[in-house]
């Protein structure tokens, strides 16, 4: 968006929306693959799906440089429409793959002014009509979405149950993150320096949850902390406190933020019920037990260039620690001036 300063609040909101749309597109593509799987997709369809899925995954993993590049080059959205066209030609416009195609136009709508948006939409409409023209008469009357799921369950009930359980876990994690991204659009803390942001989030949560919180911040204020790193750390803090409120039954929470020459460390410790962490630090296994927030925090730590550590035991509370070494801070991601609203 022209006129938006890099690192400002408007850019942060744009980044959140961009990631949310990519997340929704990935969810829709995954569901389409499941529903279409029993129909025996050929190699061409699998290749097109793999390419589009890889593009979406890479854009989510490296969203900062991707967002900057796509904003400068609107024709890249037209190239994305070509990838969608390849999937529609192989999988059919009238089947389950059509639904996720709207995300290309949605992304263009939030990234560009009217001129580039019109270009992308016209290109996508033309490609959809072209793909429609390649469909056979039988495909045009195929109720794809209506029959795929029952057929999948009937032909392989054991696999269907297993896959459905995994998909449900993935959708819950994705939906949780989507709700968080939407809430982040109006969160005041993301515009504050990190120590102030931590204090702001802690004070608000303590008042709402009626649980005392002690906050300790050590080191320099950290005005040079990149926006992306600060965003992920504050998000981990919010998720950790949400988990305390939902599961810990804690009477007290301690938050400690340490800034040193080597990087950042934030720890959230509660004196609540605790639980048994999975063996080998396999935090992804917690999703099967309903601990989706921990999985999301670990992913946020990775996106910030750090790692998440979880220590807990029944009756001895839980400590969540995110460590982000300075060496892994994203290059070229400027911090906002202290006190930016």
* Bulk shape: globular
Low-confidence stretches: 1-9, 138-149, 336-341
Annotation field: number of helices: 12
N-to-C SSE series?
HHHHHHHHHHEHEEHEE
Strand order of the biggest β-sheet? 1-2-3-5-4
The percentage of residues in β strands lies in 5-15%
Overall mean pLDDT stands at 75
Distance, first to last CA: 20 Å
Number of strands: 5
Could you say how many structural domains there are in total?
2
* Secondary structure category: alpha+beta
Please give the share of residues in helix: 55-70%
Rg, rounded, reads 22 Å
Largest sheet: 5 strands, mixed
Q: Could you describe the 3D structure shown?
A:
The protein contains 12 helices and 5 strands. It has helices spanning 9-37, 43-61, 63-72, 75-91, 102-111, 114-133, 137-140, 144-155, 157-184, 194-209, 227-248, 292-303; strands at 213-218, 253-260, 263-270, 307-312, 318-325. Strand 1, helix 11 (227-248) and strand 2 form a beta-alpha-beta unit. A 5-stranded mixed beta sheet has the order 1-2-3-5-4. The protein has 2 domains: 9-184, no CATH class; 188-328, Histidine kinase-like ATPase, C-terminal domain (Heat Shock Protein 90). The chain has 341 residues and is α+β, with helices and mostly antiparallel strands. The chain is globular, with a radius of gyration of 22 Å. Helices cover 58% and strands 11% of the residues.
């Amino acid at each position: 968006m022209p006129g938006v300063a890099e690192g400002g609040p408007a850019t942060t909101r744009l980044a959140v929306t961009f990631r949310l749309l990519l997340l929704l597109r990935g969810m829709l593509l995954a569901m389409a693959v499941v529903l279409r799987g029993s129909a025996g997709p050929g190699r061409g369809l699998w290749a097109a799906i793999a390419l589009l899925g890889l593009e979406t995954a890479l854009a989510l993993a490296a969203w900062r440089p991707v967002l900057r590049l796509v904003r400068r080059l609107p024709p890249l959205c037209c190239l994305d429409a070509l990838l969608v066209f390849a999937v529609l030609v192989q999988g059919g416009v009238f089947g389950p793959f059509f639904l996720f195609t709207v995300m290309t136009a949605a992304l263009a709508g939030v990234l560009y002014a009217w001129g580039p948006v019109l270009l992308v939409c016209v290109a996508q409409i033309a490609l959809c009509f072209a793909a429609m023209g390649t469909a056979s008469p039988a495909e045009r009357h195929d109720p794809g979405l209506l029959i795929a799921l029952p057929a999948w369950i009937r032909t392989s009930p054991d696999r269907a149950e297993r896959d459905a359980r995994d998909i449900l876990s993935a959708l819950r994690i994705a939906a949780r993150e989507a709700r968080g991204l939407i809430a982040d659009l109006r969160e005041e803390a993301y515009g504050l320096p990190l120590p102030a942001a931590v204090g702001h989030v802690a004070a608000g949560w303590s008042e709402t949850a009626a649980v005392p919180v002690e906050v300790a911040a050590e080191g320099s204020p950290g005005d040079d902390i990149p926006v992306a790193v600060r965003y992920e750390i504050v998000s981990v803090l919010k998720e950790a406190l949400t988990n305390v409120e939902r599961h810990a039954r804690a009477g007290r929470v301690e938050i400690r933020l340490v800034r040193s020459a080597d990087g950042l460390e934030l720890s959230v410790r509660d004196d609540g019920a605790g639980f048994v962490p999975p063996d080998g630090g396999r935090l992804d296994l917690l999703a099967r037990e309903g601990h989706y927030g921990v999985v999301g925090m670990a992913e946020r730590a990775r996106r910030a260039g750090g790692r998440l550590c979880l220590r807990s035991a029944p009756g001895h509370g839980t400590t969540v620690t995110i460590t982000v070494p300075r060496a892994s801070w994203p290059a070229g991601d400027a911090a906002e001036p202290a006190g930016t609203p």
